[in-house]
Amino acid sequence: MVWFSSPSDATTRLGEVGYLADPATATTAFLAGALEKPLLVEGPAGVGKTELAKAVSRATGADLVRLQCYEGLDEARALYEWNYKKQLLRIQAANDGQAWEETHDDIFSEEFLLTRPLLTAIRRSEPTVLLIDEVDKTDVEVEGLLLEVLSDFQVTIPELGTVAATRRPFVVLTSNASRELSEAVKRRCLYLHLDYPDTERERAIVTSQVPDLDDKVATQLVSAVARLRDLELKKAPSIAETVDWARTLLALHIDDLDAMAIDDTLGVVLKHASDTDRAVRELKLR
Amino acid sequence: MTLLDRHIAFLEALRAAGMPVSLSEDLDAVAALGLVGWGERQQVHDTYAATLLKRQSQRETFDEYFEIYFPRMVGEGVARADAAQDQPAVRDSAADLAAFTEELADALEADDLERLRQLASEAVGRFGAMPGRGPGMSSWSAYTTLRRLSTDELTLKLIEGLRRIGWGEEAAVRAASTRVGSYQQMVEADARRRIAEEKGPDQIARITVRPTIDRLDFLSARRVDLEALRREIYPLARRLATRLTQEKHARRRGALDMRRTVRASIGTGGVPLTTHHRPKRPHRTELVILCDVSGSVANFASFTLMLVFALREQLGKVRAFTFVDDIHEVTDHFAPGADLVDTMTRLADATSHAARFGRTNYGRAFARFLEDHPDALGPKSSLLILGDARSNYSDLSLPTLRRMREAARHAWWLNPEARRSWDTGDSAASDYAAVVPMVECRNLTQLTEFVHDIL
Ligand SMILES: Nc1ncnc2c1ncn2[C@@H]1O[C@H](COP(=O)(O)OP(=O)(O)OP(=O)(O)O)[C@@H](O)[C@H]1O
Ligand SMILES: [Mg+2]
Predict the structure, then answer these.
(1) pTM to 2 decimals?
(2) Same-domain pairing of B292 and B435
(3) What InterPro entries does this protein map onto (chain B) (predicted)?
(4) Is the domain of B299 the same as that of B377?
(5) In A, which residues are within 8 Å of B32 by CB distance?
(6) What is the DSSP string of B216-233?
(7) How many angstroms away from the CA of A114 is the closest CA of chain B?
(8) Which residues of A touch B344 (CB under 8 A)?
(9) Atom of ligand 1 nearest to the CA of A22
(10) Does one domain contain both B62 and B176?
């Protein structure tokens, strides 16, 4: 399947579904589709990593299959699992006359297989976007698993045989870089670092999501956010928080974002007391 | 140079700079460029980035090399060269300089990157030419260019300008130094581009590109580097903490917990499908850090301290002392959740308490430490000393250090100097290393490895 026909096609179609991609993002998304290589997206919280995968699925009409990673995620949750309880029941229900061979073949069949996101994505025959979200939260062993799936797009189930993808999914892995992923996984992926957008793009994102916001306020808002991000805060405001801030300003009918208005609504974007203190001091809010 | 030659040379240069670019990345890049084409420079850049980069810390090095191998223009660039024709040949009079500075100041205040880049190139063209004695001997100097422009004045002017449009003082100072810093980097990049044009990219790549931030020597960090380094601390601490917790969890599987395992097996018809284990008990130690905060090693000390305190949850108790020739406890400066920039500033201010006569004297500092804090070290504590072991030829007090070593459970010494400079001049590295194992720790990578290994 042709996911995007060119970088500019990616820009246009992602834009049509509400994702305003910068040139690097568009080029990389185009390449991930055309080369059929997984795309690793790294960057701080709330810059649109997860949203990119969702937008690709919306823009191309492919279904999204999502594997949310967490510490302790294992093969049984990521790939597949045998339904042990049902198998036990089946064994207990088998009458004495039935040969073990037969029961064995029976309990290791499709009926007793619980497919998890990775296997689901590989087996689907319709176009699929596979989102492996927050991959840095998993343990290193899971990476071994991913490696197998991402290099050959196939999964071997000892009792059933090898399942190979009939159609390669568009794979997006996201990471906050809370730990380094292994070189092996990285080598299989294209790499994209998403960062906070420049003020132009951020203003466009805000206006597209909060269309009723006054132009002047939107401009003031994104420049205030840019200055906050310059302050080396513990938690810099994300795009999602900029959008929240915009909604707040609209709800409060604030039509001029001056020092006092910023001070009053700062809680929407800053979550640490020491960050607020620093912002109040450096932006001269009080 | 053909396109293919250039491609190969570019990758070769990246490898030489320590980026792991294997054959498979090479082939990916070629395939990707085949799809995207060579028509647009930005797309070529993004395509190389997508296929060759593996982490953000490689970005700066990657960009610098890209600028050298795929320059955005040749010579003065098309537009500028046309404009230059109806101007007199020499454009370096006092009036020209003043006019140019004026234009630059405007662009800095507007933070207009595209114009700043043009002005960087123009500046090198006008003020940075180094005529050579023969053909091929001329060169370009970023240093001369920046001297002519007097960047300090530009910074001051920019701070004033930003203050006038309502910026707070600290914010203005910070923004001004970042912007002027990045303009300096543009000038340096343009000088490299011009030299590469005359001498060939390979030669220039070998000598002038700086290492990635995590491999940059603490001792040779410039102002902009220090800020970049500081921004790395929290992410680094976070990565380390995650790695440590995961490793701890992996190790934690203690003895089998029979009762829980049996109870859980009831749900699966008495078959123990999942086993349960007792947690292992971690042992807690106390870390005592002594930091030389004199002169050039001060930066190294404060980075290490910040990193250690950012990891406090993993570490348990930490006490920190700074010294020049006297000892001063700074543990209280590291309130939980404190602001990084503020802490660094306060730490720098506290340096005066660590100095009596102002010349580094390790021996005296160690003696004063034992005098003032006799019970700081005990069988549960680990001692960490940070410094270059340069004691101005004073008495080393080896027996004192030995007593400290014996009082503690573990001891290490981190030296920010390259191993080959140990024992040169007034460095007493080997003498001290004989008492406390000494580790070379020149950059963030080495620091991270060390911190990871001792935890
Ligand atoms: N380029 C963009 N165009 C439009 N909206 C965007 C864009 N980038 C981010 N957003 C908005 O920001 C929100 C947060 O993005 P998202 O949840 O994808 O962040 P993330 O990078 O995955 O963060 P985290 O690391 O916390 O998971 C999205 O819901 C979306 O509304
Ligand atoms: Mg996300």
Answers:
(1) 0.75
(2) yes
(3) UCP010256, Uncharacterised_CoxE
(4) yes
(5) 31, 34-35
(6) S-GGG--HHHHHHHHHHH
(7) 17
(8) none
(9) 1
(10) no
Q: What is the pLDDT of residues B176-203, one digit of tens each?
A: 888 998 899 899 888 888 888 777 777 7
Q: Are residues B292 and B175 in the same domain?
A: no
pLDDT of B372-415, one tens digit each?
998 899 888 889 999 999 888 888 899 999 999 999 988 999 99
Determine, for residues A179 and B239 on separate chains, whether the beta-carbon distance falls below 8 Å.
yes
CA distance B120 to chain A (A): 22
Distance A193 CA to ligand 1 centre (A): 13
To which H or E segment does residue B86 belong? none
Yes or no, beta carbons of A191 and B337 under 8 Å apart: no
Between CA B54 and CA A42 the distance in angstroms is 10
Q: Which domain covers residue B119, as residue numbers?
A: 91-200
pLDDT for B306 equals 82
What is the C-alpha to C-alpha distance for residues B391 and B375, in angstroms, rounded to an integer? 25
Q: Which of A16, A50, A51, A69 to mutate to test the pocket of ligand 1 (most atoms within 8 A of CB)?
A: A51
| Residue B211 included in any domain | no
B277 lies in the same domain as B290? no
Encoding tokens for residue A188?
């299989």
User: Which of B302, B298, B328, B288 has its CA nearest to residue B388?
Assistant: B298
Residues A112, A107: Cα–Cα separation, whole Å: 6
Is residue B323 classed as helix, strand or coil in its secondary structure? strand
Q: Determine the pLDDT at residue A211.
A: 94
Q: In a 3-state reduction of DSSP, which class is residue A109?
A: coil
Q: Whose CA is nearest to atom 16 of ligand 1?
A: A48
Q: Can you count the helices (H) and strands (E) in chain B? A: 20, 8
Residue finishing a domain among B69, B100, B115: B69
**Residue B65 near residue B17 (C-beta atoms within 8 A):** yes
Cβ of A178 within 8 Å of Cβ of B239? The answer is yes
A31 with B35: Cβ contact below 8 A: yes
Residues B243 and B257 in one domain: no
**CA closest to A92 among chain B residues:** B269
Number of compact structural domains in chain B = 4
Give a yes or no: residue B62 inside a domain. yes
Asked if the structure places residue B181 within a domain, the reply is yes
Q: CB of A47 closer than 6 A to ligand 1? A: yes
Quick one: which of B103, B107, B200, B194 has its CA closest to B144?
A: B194
Regarding the beta carbon of A20 and ligand 1, being less than 6 Å apart is answered yes
| Residue B31 with chain A: CB contacts under 8 Å | 35
Single-letter code of the amino acid located at B276: H
Stretch among A20-34, A72-86, B248-262, B397-411 having the lowest mean pLDDT:
B248-262
**Per-residue model confidence as pLDDT tens digits over A160-180:** 888 898 899 999 999 988 777
Contact between chains at B46 and A187 (C-beta distance less than 8 A): no
Same domain, B11 and B159: no
* Distance separating alpha carbons of residues B12 and B222, to the nearest angstrom: 27
- Mean pLDDT score of chain A, rounded to an integer? 90
The answer to whether residue B352 sits within a structural domain is yes
Check whether residue B153 and residue B184 sit in a common domain.
yes
Segments in chain B below pLDDT 70? 77-92, 133-138, 204-210, 246-254, 279-284, 296, 336-338, 340
ipTM rounded to 2 decimals: 0.91
Q: Give start and end residues of each alpha helix (H) in chain A.
A: 7-16, 23-35, 49-60, 75-78, 84-93, 100-107, 117-123, 140-152, 183-188, 199-209, 215-229, 239-251, 259-265, 273-282
